[in-house]
Amino acid sequence: MFDIGLQELIIIFLVALLVFGPERLPEVAKTMGKWFGDIGKSIQNTRAQMEREFYESEKEAGAEAGIPNMTDEPKSKKEPASGEEKKEG
């Protein structure tokens, strides 16, 4: 995503260590982790809500046009296509 390598992570860690000090660094890391988690949950909830809205609008558009079989629920997780099966082993 950000294309950050090991060397860049080490430099970021050292700068954070110098800026915040060894006492506050774990607290700052915990806070940032919580923020990123909250942001991720918000994005996931927004995406799910948009999928529901698109599904409802497609369902209404299909009913108005007289298109049958618009009853399938939106899938929140990607599943293999009907011809693709999971390979075991």
Textual characterization of the structure:
The chain is an all-alpha fold. Helix content is 67%, strand content 0%. The chain has 1 helix and no strands. The radius of gyration is 23 Å and the shape is elongated. The two termini are 31 Å apart. The mean pLDDT is 81.
Calculate the mean pLDDT score and round it: 81
Low-confidence parts lasting 5 or more residues at pLDDT below 50? Answer: none
The largest pleated sheet is described as:
none
Helical fraction equals 55-70%
Beta-strand segment tally: 0
Strand content: under 5%
The SS-based structural class is: mainly alpha
Overall geometric form: elongated
Number of helices: 1
Distance between the termini: 31 Å
| Secondary-structure element pattern, one letter each | H
What is the gist of this entry?
By secondary structure, this protein is mostly helical. Helices cover 67% and strands 0% of the residues.
Name its key features:
89 residues; 0% strand; elongated; mainly alpha
Secondary structure topology:
Blueprint: H1 6-65
